[in-house]
Amino acid sequence: MAEESRTKITHAGKLGYSFRRHMHERFIETFLFLSALLSIAIMLAIIVMLVKESLVFFQHVSIWQFVTDTQWTPLFDDAHYGIMPLVSGTIVSSLIALLVALPLGTIIAIYLSEFAPFTVREMAKPFLELLGGVPTVVYGYFALLFVTPLLQIIFPELPGFNLLSAGLVMGIMIIPYVSSMTEDAMRAVPMNLREGSYAMGATRFQTAIRVVMPAAFSGIAAAYILGISRAVGETMVVAIAAGMQPNLTWNPMEPAATITAYIVQVSLGDLPHGSIGYQTIFAAGLTLLLITLLFNIIGHVLRKRYREIY
Amino acid sequence: MKSVNNLEEIRKIIGLHKKWDLIFMITGIIALMIAVLTFMALFAHMLIDGMPRLSWEFFTSFPSRRPESAGILSAWVGTTLVMLVTAFAAVPLGIGSGVYLEEYAPKNLLTEIIEINVTNLAGVPSIIYGLLALGLFVYQLGFGQSILAAGLALALLILPVVIVATREAIRSIPVSIREGAYALGATKWQTVSDHLLPYSSAGILTGIIIGLARAIGETAPIITIGALTFIAFLPPSPVKSEFPYVSFEWLTAPFTVMPIQMFNWVSRPEEAFQLNAAAAGLVLVVMTLAMNGLAIYLRYRMRKNIKW
């Protein structure tokens, strides 16, 4: 009798234990699942927030005016809402940055991956990583107070705020991102491809350019795309060194505001929530997001299309 | 006769190709030097300008209209508190998300969407996170221009960094560890919490440190939520003398952070303030370099010590 009840109890206990254990597992899995879903929630929240405020903005301003007007003076009495001046500033500063970052980043990556001795690589990689960790506001300070005076020695007529110095410093800033991703892509190319190339009598340079780089193309494309998004979305360097005056120009020697610098300028002021000035930064932000998303999609297509499988 | 001629030609071609090798090698070293020298120039310039301003008073004074008595007290206190919020939000969510994607997620469309989305989030400009925080945290949820809103904005920003670091650290643990745990009757979560997380802790920590180092230097999102640039008081203390000893009033307090303080000083025309900016920049750079250096060291040790 006693025996029987005891087995019963342990049986029930086991069931209860198993049940609790099961519930515990399910509870944790749910928490983990929700935290994974959060990333989608963030993306949706970004899009909803930007589109919602922009829609209100576009009730006041037609999209046609937004795209074609050549002046951006939303805070003046004579308000114009043409995004072009901000876009031109963004394009010019990004182009300069990319002209610096893509060639230098690629050369450094090829050198580190294919040429450099082990010790050089072990020293250079952490150093580049540190370079990428320097806060952008510090780079802005450097552009305004070191690079611009330096450039003014060469071009005496260069104004204190200009796109050139902001773009150059931004380029240096982006080098680590481009070089480290490009190098990772090149190092992922299997050794036997290189060995095959060397066996055919190719030199290191030929192997790097004609065998390794094409094989790593999808990874290199991803690195370039990331560099472009960084340049387009970079804020503090341009806000500090390129000035905050919207200026429709393609001349890097002039001061001009970028999309991001405009957002900073408005945020520094005291615009009431819900005013049209408040909504302009969301419209500007939406433009910025669309540009970076466009590049991300291009990168995704390139990666899919040219992915090499070994 | 002809073959000798050929050999010489071939040698010439090889010599030419070898020359290109050399030229490229020199180009590579020059490119690397440009990066190194720029960094040196940046650091030296800041050191020369900012070093004389660095003193005990600089850390214990509030910003002021007189540059020589201005300090970064409210800025570094603000940065510390904002980082606290960021770490508290980003670490559990980032690790949770990474663990789910690596260990739990079934192979389906939703998982793939989440994975692509994490990559996309990493490419979204930081100022966009600022706009999100402005609309959502500051106005919709009513947090105001507070430490809480800023900390959460930066948490969203570094979430992808923590997720990716967690995934990579967990992925490098061999399957045999999991199989061993399951064979002894461990549940999935027991396997994760008793084995996978401890073994990958160094890798995850590295990711967290890199993420926080990035968050410390981020200026744009915090400016966007409307943080004030001139704060001459401290947020209410988190520790109290009477029960319950801790207070969360500081979460809703106005604040400023190091990079904003520096930005404020840089954008003033007086040179004396720009010296202050150099000093603040020096503190900021040393902080981020120390954190990144710690991360690099951790990774180096990890690579050396772990042999599965």
Structure description:
The complex is a heterodimer of chains A (310) and B (308). Chain A has 12 helices and no strands. Chain A has 310 residues and is an all-alpha fold. Chain A folds into 2 domains: 59 residues; 223 residues, MetI-like fold (Orthogonal Bundle), CATH 1.10.3720.10. The longest helix of chain A is centred in the N-terminal third of the chain and has 59 residues. The radius of gyration of chain A is 27 Å and the shape is flat. The termini of chain A are far apart. With 308 residues, chain B is mainly alpha-helical. Chain B folds into 2 domains: 51 residues; 250 residues, MetI-like fold (Orthogonal Bundle). Chain B is 74% helix and 0% strand. Chain B is globular, with a radius of gyration of 26 Å. The mean pLDDT of chain B is 86. The interface between A and B is large, with 85 and 90 residues.
Largest sheet of chain B: none
Q: Unreliable segments of chain A (pLDDT under 50, ≥5 consecutive)?
A: none
Number of domains of chain A: 2
DSSP helix fraction of chain A = over 70%
Mean pLDDT of chain B: 86
The whole-angstrom Rg of chain A is: 27 Å
Specify the CATH architecture of the largest domain in chain B.
Orthogonal Bundle
The biggest sheet of chain A amounts to: none
Family (chain A): Belongs to the binding-protein-dependent transport system permease family. CysTW subfamily.
GO biological process, one term (chain A): phosphate ion transport
GO molecular function (chain A): phosphate transmembrane transporter activity
Membrane topology (chain A): Multi-pass membrane protein
